Structures are given as structure tokens and as C-alpha cells.
């Protein structure tokens, strides 16, 4: 019996082995192959590409607060992706913020690297875009835990006053224990710049209340004001040819912006546009040098520097007002509405004690404010500090109502200190009359 049953048992073991082999083949080979083929087929369909693109657009919108529209998304390799025809808009207003032709980014060892090809930004949307990026990116440390490097070939900033192209742009985001620092370096196309301009933005969380510090250094080359003319709507009032050189330091805290312009200069100012629609007339092209300049919460608190104006006209009403408020000594008659001059130059300083002015034309005697045909036409020297509000009363006296047409403010008037409000006459506090009644 044992011998008879042995072939049958051997055949049953053979079937079991075949069944096990078939199951192993299906589980370990056929199913993974089928899943791989299915995954490849699904990933190659337009449906999957649209889903992946929509998901990335949603993630970018949630992180940065801006709406991203991606034309084409390509996966180049594990950890490498390319986006084409990227369009950025304001999710609330729908305004066009900018566009990028191609974006390539790679992730390696926790470091993110991006390369932008032909990015373009609308200067008019920079204020709102900056607020969103600051509040939703820089103020969230969990989003800046890894270093980020950004490179761009040519960044075009378009504005109503003309476009500016930044070349050789490099940006770095470096996280620290209690802060994150962003450094951007660039050059202006068409300008000889020995060293690139640098912008650094630091979000400091080591203080009780976090602060944001923003610094700009032009690298020794003047930058056109058209670069940010739409960012600061009042800059066009300085003129289309206005340029800035030197450092800017800003700090944003709970009380607002504090700005330091010490060591900077502003050239090519069209004085007639600054004085447009004000009570007095002054024309010419001005250069301003600032040895120190502090603006706290939108108000000028301390300044020292010099002003040079060439080839202009000094309105007689302004000259007469300057005689009364600043102590200017006129050397010309008042029979004409304006007095031409070749050069007007003076130094100024303001602190808690008040304003001081002195003429600084390169001729003798000292204190010459303006000259015409090599002859002085006005002298200026203030032996005693003047009232804080003197310059503002000079350019916009109390009887002067118009400011810039259609606008409620003026770049100069906004910064200059105003006269202190008159003190209220002291009076005894009101005491209410109260009658107390008692019940017996």
C-alpha cells in the first residue's frame, strides 16, 4: 500500500509546488509589473498632468497668497521639475503681478534651487505682493527651515515710467535659529556696475516682538527711480531722470516703518514738479546729499545734508517768504515775478533744537545762497535754530490750499514736521454736582 500510494503523494506535492510558484509569480512579478505599467500609463495621461498641475497651483497659492497659473509641468528627474508659462495674479483683484517663461527647480539634501528664465514683474503690484510674501512666507518659520537659492537671467520690472531689467540676479534664503535672512544681488542692464547692488531682508524673531529689517546698497552705482516708481506713487513727482545712490535701511516693527537714508544721494530731481501746484515757484535740476536722514513712522525726525540746484528760477513770493521765515537776505529787486539763477546751493540740518541753514555756493563771501552771472542774488545764514515747522510753512503757508492736483498729499509736505497744535488753556476739571439724601 505504501508503494502504491507513493506516486499519488508525489503527484500531489508536484501540484502544490506549482500552485505556490504560480502564486509567487502573480504576487511578486505579475502584480508589480501590472501596477508599474498602470502607473506609467496613468501618469502619461493628460488627466494626471492636469491633476498634478492643479495640486501644485493650490499649494503655491496657499503658501504665498498669490494665484499661480502653470501652462506646462514636466518632471525631468526625481527631485527635478520644470514649469513653463507661469502666470501670477492677485487672487483678490485679479491684477497681473508677473509672469515667468520657464522655472526649473531641484531639491537635493533638503536644499531647494530655482532658476528663472525671463521673469517679468509689474511694479504697480509690488506693494501688495510684498505684503503677502512678508505676512505669509517670511513670518512663518516653518516655511523657511531649508536653504533656498534662486537665479534669474533677466528680470524685467515694467512700470508706467518705463521698464528696468535686472541681470545676474542671485537670491539666497538662509534660515537661522531665531531669524531667516534673504539676500539678493543684481545689476542693471546697460549700466557699468563694478559691484552688484544688494538687498537684504531679515526677519528677526529673537526679540519680544519680531521685526523685519530691509537694507539696500546700490554698489556705488546710481539706480533709476523708475525701478520702484509704481511701488511708491510719489516718486514720479521727483522726475523721470531721478536716480538714487547709497544705502537705505528700513525696519518694520509694531509701530510702523523706520527709515535711515544716511550716506545716500538723490540726483536729477525736477524741482518744478516737486513745487507743482504749491503756493510758490522754484525750478531747476537738483541734487540732494544726505549725511544723515531718519524717518520714524512716516515723519522726518533728523536730517543733515546739502542741496544743489542748477539753472532754475526762484519765485519772488518764495524769496519774500524765505526772508521772513528763514532770514534770507535778498540782493535783487522785487519788481519781477521770478529771478533766474545759475546755481543755488545750501546746507541744512534739523534736530530737536530746530532747523539750521547756510548758503554754500562756491564763491566768497560765505553764506551765498544763489548766484546768477557770477553775481550773488541771495544770502542765507541762520545763527539760531529755526522752528521745526519753518520749512513746511515756507513751501505751504497756512493760506496755501492746493497741493498736488487730484491728490491729498505731497512727498515733501508728508515728511516735513508740522507746527505743534496750540496748547489748550488750562481750566479746572468739571465737578459734577451730586446731592446726597439720607433716610432717617
Task: Explain the overall architecture.
With 440 residues, the protein is α+β, with helices and mostly antiparallel strands. The protein has a domain at 261-419. The protein contains seven helices and 21 strands. The chain has helices spanning 2-43, 46-64, 126-138, 271-274, 316-325, 390-395, 411-415, and strands spanning 67-77, 80-89, 96-108, 111-122, 148-158, 164-175, 179-188, 197-204, 211-217, 223-224, 243-245, 247-253, 256-260, 264-270, 285-296, 299-315, 329-330, 338-351, 354-359, 368-372, 375-379. The protein has a 21-stranded mixed beta sheet that branches. A hairpin with a 3-residue loop joins strand 6 and strand 7 (179-188). The longest helix has 42 residues, at 2-43. The termini are far apart. Residues 399-409 and 421-440 have low confidence and may be disordered.
Write the layout of secondary structure elements.
Elements: H1 2-43, H2 46-64, E1 67-77, E2 80-89, E3 96-108, E4 111-122, H3 126-138, E5 148-158, E6 164-175, E7 179-188, E8 197-204, E9 211-217, E10 223-224, E11 243-245, E12 247-253, E13 256-260, E14 264-270, H4 271-274, E15 285-296, E16 299-315, H5 316-325, E17 329-330, E18 338-351, E19 354-359, E20 368-372, E21 375-379, H6 390-395, H7 411-415
Parallel strand pairs: 4-5
Antiparallel strand pairs: 1-2, 2-3, 3-4, 5-6, 6-7, 7-8, 8-9, 9-12, 10-11, 11-14, 12-13, 13-15, 14-15, 15-16, 16-18, 17-21, 18-19, 18-20, 20-21
Order of helices and strands: HHEEEEHEEEEEEEEEEHEEHEEEEEHH
In angstroms, what is the radius of gyration?
Answer: 35 Å
| Average pLDDT figure | 79
Q: Judging from the principal axes of the Cα atoms, what is the shape?
A: elongated
Judged by helices, strands and strand pairing, the structural class is: alpha+beta
Number of helices: 7
Distance between the termini: 128 Å
Sheet having the most strands: 21 strands, mixed
Low-pLDDT segments: 399-409, 421-440
Helix content: 10-25%
In terms of DSSP E residues, the strand content is: 35-45%
> How many β-strand stretches?
21
Protein name: AsmA-like C-terminal domain-containing protein
Region (Disordered): 417-440
Transmembrane segments: 20-42
Organism: Rosistilla carotiformis
Amino acid at each position: 500500500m505504501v508503494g502504491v500510494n507513493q506516486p499519488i503523494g508525489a503527484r500531489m506535492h508536484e501540484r502544490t509546488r506549482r500552485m505556490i510558484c504560480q502564486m509567487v509569480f502573480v504576487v511578486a512579478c505579475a502584480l508589480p509589473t501590472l501596477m508599474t505599467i498602470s502607473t506609467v500609463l496613468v501618469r502619461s495621461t493628460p488627466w494626471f498632468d492636469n491633476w498634478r498641475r492643479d495640486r501644485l497651483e493650490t499649494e503655491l497659492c496657499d503658501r504665498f497668497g498669490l494665484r499661480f497659473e502653470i501652462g506646462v509641468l514636466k518632471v525631468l528627474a526625481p527631485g527635478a521639475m520644470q514649469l513653463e508659462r507661469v502666470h501670477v495674479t492677485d487672487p483678490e483683484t485679479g491684477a497681473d503681478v508677473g509672469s515667468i517663461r520657464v522655472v526649473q527647480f531641484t531639491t537635493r539634501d533638503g536644499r531647494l534651487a530655482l532658476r528663472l528664465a525671463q521673469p517679468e514683474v509689474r511694479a504697480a503690484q509690488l506693494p501688495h505682493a510684498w505684503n503677502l510674501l512678508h505676512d505669509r512666507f517670511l513670518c512663518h518659520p516653518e516655511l523657511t527651515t531649508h536653504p533656498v537659492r534662486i537665479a534669474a537671467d533677466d528680470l524685467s520690472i515694467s512700470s508706467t515710467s518705463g521698464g528696468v531689467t535686472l541681470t545676474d540676479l542671485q537670491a539666497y534664503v538662509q534660515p537661522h535659529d531665531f531669524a531667516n535672512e534673504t539676500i539678493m544681488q543684481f545689476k542693471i542692464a546697460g549700466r557699468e556696475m563694478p559691484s552688484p547692488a544688494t538687498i537684504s531682508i531679515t526677519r528677526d524673531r529673537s526679540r519680544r516682538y519680531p521685526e523685519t529689517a530691509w537694507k539696500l546698497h546700490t554698489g556705488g552705482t546710481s539706480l533709476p527711480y523708475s525701478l520702484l516708481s509704481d511701488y511708491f506713487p510719489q516718486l514720479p513727482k521727483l522726475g523721470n531722470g531721478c536716480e538714487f545712490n547709497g544705502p537705505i535701511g528700513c525696519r518694520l516693527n509694531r509701530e510702523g516703518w523706520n527709515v535711515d537714508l544716511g550716506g545716500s544721494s538723490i540726483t536729477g530731481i525736477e524741482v518744478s514738479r516737486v513745487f507743482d501746484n504749491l503756493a510758490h515757484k522754484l525750478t531747476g535740476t537738483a541734487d540732494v546729499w544726505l549725511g544723515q536722514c531718519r524717518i520714524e513712522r512716516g515723519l522726518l525726525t533728523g536730517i543733515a545734508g546739502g542741496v544743489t540746484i542748477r539753472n532754475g528760477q526762484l519765485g519772488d513770493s518764495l524769496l519774500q517768504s524765505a526772508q521772513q521765515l528763514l532770514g534770507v537776505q535778498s540782493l535783487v529787486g522785487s519788481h519781477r515775478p521770478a529771478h533766474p539763477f545759475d546755481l543755488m546751493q545750501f546746507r541744512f540740518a534739523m534736530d530737536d533744537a530746530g532747523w539750521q541753514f547756510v548758503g554754500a555756493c562756491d564763491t566768497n563771501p560765505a553764506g551765498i545762497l544763489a548766484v546768477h552771472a557770477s553775481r550773488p542774488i541771495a544770502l542765507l545764514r541762520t545763527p539760531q535754530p529755526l522752528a521745526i515747522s519753518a520749512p513746511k510753512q515756507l513751501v505751504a503757508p497756512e493760506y496755501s490750499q492746493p497741493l498736488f492736483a487730484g491728490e491729498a498729499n505731497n512727498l515733501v509736505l508728508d515728511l516735513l514736521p508740522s507746527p505743534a497744535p496750540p496748547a489748550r488753556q488750562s481750566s479746572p476739571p468739571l465737578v459734577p454736582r451730586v446731592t446726597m439724601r439720607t433716610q432717617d
